[in-house]
Amino acid sequence: MTGFWNTGAPDGQSPRLSFVAPTAPSGPTELVLLDPCGEVIGRLRFRACVTCRTGRILDLWVGDAWQRQGLGRDLVRFLFAHRPGHRWSTTLQSRPGRAFFTAMTRETTVSLLPGGPLCPHLMGWFRRTLRRLPHAR
Question: What is the reported pTM?
Fold first, then answer.
């Protein structure tokens, strides 16, 4: 999937949105923003479970020259629009990340707390096995 982003980009050029499908059913998926020359200028990686309607944002990055234009915000909103009704969490957040995800929680009313529980489908075999052990509870 490829689309064009409407934003006040440098030189009046709009970035393109590209979708990178996971290599494994529960593996990470990427939304990638490309500049007009095809260079990666932003990326949002996530994992989502359609069965349990849960997901985790693994990382979000926008290049320095493209920051403060709403591209990170637009990536998150695009994700929510294409995965409606999911409960979301994030990995641990940096200080700027905490401010960003707090603002996104207020704007979207979707809670984006770091480290929320994952459903069994997103845990992976090692964490599922560890969770079943008596001492892991």
Answer: 0.76
